[in-house]
Amino acid sequence: MATKITRDVIEAYLNCRYKGYLKLAGEHDNPSDYEQFMRESRERIRLAGTNRLLVRHKEDEVLRGCIVTPAVLKRGVPLLLDATVEDEEFGLRFDALQRAVGASRLGGFHYVPVLFHEAEMPTRKPRTLLELLGLVLGTVQGWHPGWGVLIYGRHCQVRRLRLRSNAEPFRRAMKEIKEVQRAGTPPPLTLNSHCQICEFRQSCHAEATAKDDLSLLRGVAEKEIRKYGRRGIFTVTQLSCTFRPRKKGKRSKLKRQLHQHALQALAIREKKVHVLGDPELPACATRIYIDIEGEPERRFDYLLGMIAEADGGVEQHSFWADSPTEESRLFLQFLDVVACYDDFRIYCYGSYEAAFLRRMIKLLKRQELDGRLLSRVVNVLSVIHAHVYFPTYSNGLKDIGRFLGFRWTEADASGIQSIVWRRKWEETRSVMFKDMLTTYNLEDCAALKRVTEFLYAACSRQCEPQKVSREGLEIARVEDISHQSSRPGWGDIAFALPDFSFVNERAHFDYQRDRVLVRTSKILRKRRGRKGAKRWKKSRKVNREVEISTQSCPFCGGTELARRQNGNLARLSFDLRITRSGIRRWVTRYRTTWHYCAGCAKRFLPSDYLRLEEFCHSLKSWAMYEHVAHRTSLPNIADTIRECFNMPIRHPQVHAFKQLLADYYQGTCKRLLEKIVGGVLLHVDETEVHVRRIGRGYVWVFTNLEEVVYLYRPSREGDFLHDLLKDFRGVLISDFYAAYDSLNCPQQKCLVHLIRDFNQDIVGNPWDEELKSLASAFGRLLRAVIATVDRYGLSQRHLGKHRRDVDRFFQTTVAETFHSEVAEGYRKRLLKYRDKLFTFLDHDGVPWNNNNAEHAVKGFAYYREVADNLVTEVGLDQYLVLLSVYETCKYKRVSFLKFLVSGETDIDVFSGGDGKRILPVIELCPEGMESCRPSRKRLGVQAMGEGGTTATTLDESAARPETPA
Fold first, then answer.
1. Which tens digit of pLDDT belongs to each residue from 497-522?
2. Could you tell me the fold of the domain covering 665-747+852-912?
3. What is the pTM of this model?
4. Long-range contacts of the stretch 689-696 (C-beta < 8 A, 24+)
């Protein structure tokens, strides 16, 4: 970006960063009337101010149009006019530089900046501009000026302003401008209050509208926009989805109702007027609507318009003041009209009118009017701000008035434009500008009247709904909006059509497994007939002591070993003994001594003793059973073990149990997935989860009638499915997520999802007969098919007869064209998935819904309720391995706890065997994951470990085999 930084660029950047970028890029557009008028005013002030400075200096004491360099400044000219600072980055023109006394690198003097500005008061913007000019001047003369001169207003008032030497905000602003200049990339577009007078207002507004930018909402500050951006909210539509009705607190009446930006965005998205709470609108016989035009910088109000509505009659008045001295006369004329009414209220839009009345009462010393006048003022804007949300980007009178159908005579009518008209009237005294102002003022009163009447009709307890219905506007009460969750809840759905209800009842998981799938699945019939295991007798509570020794040296292999009695060592190992009658604490003491080798003269301990585990496999299995099956947190499990079993265990140790078992059953999970992919039926679904320090992720579930596997992915993108299911040749059952459509295999879409969508739109569009007709035809077809399924099961032999009915449905009903947008959308949807809606008719044992996957999703959803946004990515992967094993055991009707305790890794092998658990002699620390697999040696028998280690049971009473769990 080659353009230099000029004063116009700096001023533009102070008003708007994006405008500063456009100025740096050399962009231009049509300036507004106000901006053009301000430029002309600045030029007049510059000429008048220059003449004022020249009067104080002789001709040879003034230097005009020079380039500011240290050499020029060292000449010590008292006054420099139109001086310019130029380098590779700047091309900055100063209105004037004035010499001041004070030591610097120039000598015994330095220069201070002089700024001409059109503002009638020294506001923040001219002060900031003067600070930046002083900062640039300081880099040239090597000395930061301590003050500057501001000449402002139509009367060329002069004020000496102090310039801060430590101006860090201004240095930062200059640095940002230079970075934009070098990078050439635009800053984020953010609309602000300057947009109404900016030359780029139309193009910026069009760009923001195309992006649905948050800054379109006029009440959202730039700081709040950045805050929303950190949460990933960048558009008005996204913000609207975050609105949740707040519960009414006990002290809600005492608190002021705050404006909710999310509700404003919701009103825009739904194009409805939303009413929050119960606005208090007073009842009165006479309503007086007033609007005042003035110039806030001059604190001069010159026009008061009013419309009085009483007894069915309407009166209009306009009171005009040529100069500030006539303000009091204008106010007295207004009082004379108001005095004609007794029971009245004065309605205004904003606090400007109330401030004028308060100022006049104080100026005229008429304090008795406080109770008679000010107490009757009703600020309509405050009612709207707190309680009424129009589908407009701002609560300005122009936006809401236009939404309610009101139109102004002048297309560009606004408060800013009225200032231009007033200034032009003062210059020309033209009747045209006075008439334009008077008309605009009364039209504001009329717009205020329409807005107020709408509020009374929509919000008052004595509402008049016929007025609202004639307007054709939709009004929604926020209290009627249900407290919706970001995820759909569980429970029965009230279907609008009885056919849909019939079909949905037969889609329940238990009903389908016990009444439908059992007819065609030999495996399910076998599981259904399985009876409980034999009850075992209650065993005695015992402890165990084991002595560990070795017969060979681990260093030289020698067998001549000696043991010293004074070198005895012992360790405790904690475990649980799980029986059908209960769970017992089990503690084993392992003893050994130091061994001495006569061959190499080295001292050592048996390797098995060094690898002993403090906590054994059954304890780990029970802990993970509680964590997965009952969703008990790991700290709570540690507390339970300490309280109930008196074991020295802490939360990190239980967390290690989770990691060990997850790694141990990783192969089990992999085999389950291979079996699912290699089968003839696959249900798949996904659900979201929030991971700590990462954000939103997704858990995918893959299942058939027997196995379940969960996988975590950081996004919902389904690209990984192509590699995962490349060898799958069965039927895939899924919802209507587009990621499944590209998979190369026969597919069956979940019909329950489809009828739920139908039902939701029927409830939302109760008068859409075309939608009802299409849904009824589909419901009749589906009911006949499901009745056959209910009678004969999922058998292609009996279901094939419905293929003709399906083809007839698509040829007749779906082939029509609907005028209803919703019905037409469903017609296209049915045609798109025509080959995937009734695939189950051509196969045996293929369900017509995805409730197997949805039921598996529930298993994770229960855990998500307690762990959402708390679990880490690693912890989630570990949990999903154990959850896959748990749900598979549940589907196979195998005890998850017994499977874990057994140490087996194949669920089918465990369910096919006797399931007896063989206790290990020694629980060793992990080499790989071996510590989780119990030894196959029984108690009371000497077992050889590494290096010939021998373990001998000392307590014979503990030598009996433990009852299998």
1. 888 888 888 888 877 777 777 677 77
2. Nucleotidyltransferase; domain 5 (3.30.420)
3. 0.53
4. 689/860, 689/864, 689/868, 689/871, 689/876, 690/868, 690/869, 691/869, 691/871, 691/872, 691/873, 691/876, 692/869, 692/870, 692/871, 692/872, 693/872, 694/873
